């Protein structure tokens, strides 16, 4: 009897059965515009009507080594939400709202319960974002991953009127940099965090940390925030000149991406409270201040660049939603990002 694909480690029948179970989860995210059913060679989505000059915006991202924390903790319902929300925020900083999402899940051996947990997180976040999960890829690749490990990535497509694209061209010296709080680390800096906490300090994920008010694992798996519902009314009112999603590269790597030539930003960290996780990492790891701001979001997940004249209106609109706004810095003449106190 000859070899089969199953003997090589790939169980096509099990994968097919899994996809059937996931079908209802995926359908729960469908919004007007979705065409066809899950299972085709590609997802179909009709471009919404009512736009005068629409631009499609696409973003692809992953969760990074935060996945290793999920695997070690045996909890997989948060990383899908991290991924979707990260992509939503990447579209948001260009003014776009999400339309649809496709995921890529790869592992050495399919464990149906694990995959279902991950996809449940994806579906929850897509429903919250008003975004359809219209397809993706579930790859079983023996020998590529250690037992229990997997990779997760996704692509999101959104839409925006050309005239509403961000950043605007009128960012100027004297504009304010306002910040919205993050939910902990979000999805960046985990390689350093794992090395410090789990290897150097020998901490356990189930270890309760009084400074956090939760276990280490719970702190590290806090979900990346979706800022779109908060910021959309500000965009509709024309109050925002630019947005910065503080992801990999931190302040120094992300802020310059939205500034015109000849402008920089001076960040004043005294303008917002530093969350315990960042103080903990800086102290225990003896991490230099500049490195902290280059690696982590330091408690702010999204920055808004606005004219001073609209600051109070921005605060009012966000206060209605229970969101506090922090004065994080100022746009200045020059180049680069200066962290006050360095």
Keywords:
alpha+beta, Phosphoribosyl-aminoimidazole Synthetase, Chain A, domain 2, 11 helices, four-stranded mixed sheet, 24% strand, 2 domains, 60s Ribosomal Protein L30, Chain: A, six-stranded mixed sheet, 342 residues
Layout of secondary structure:
Blueprint lengths: L11 H16 L6 E2 L8 E2 L8 E9 L3 H8 L5 H14 L4 E11 L4 H18 L2 E9 L9 E12 L14 E6 L8 H11 L7 E2 L4 E2 H5 L7 H9 L5 E4 L4 H5 L8 E5 L8 H10 L3 H7 L4 E7 L4 H9 L6 E8 L2 E4 L3
Parallel strand pairs: 4-5, 11-14
Antiparallel strand pairs: 1-2, 3-6, 4-6, 7-12, 7-13, 8-9, 10-12, 11-13
Helix pairs in contact: 1-4, 3-4
Describe this structure in words.
The structure is a single chain. With 342 residues, this protein is an alpha+beta fold. It folds into two domains: 153 residues, 60s Ribosomal Protein L30, Chain: A; 164 residues, PurM-like C-terminal domain (Phosphoribosyl-aminoimidazole Synthetase, Chain A, domain 2). 33% of the residues lie in helices and 24% in strands. A hairpin with a 4-residue loop joins strand 8 and strand 9. 38% of the residues are buried. The mean pLDDT is 93.
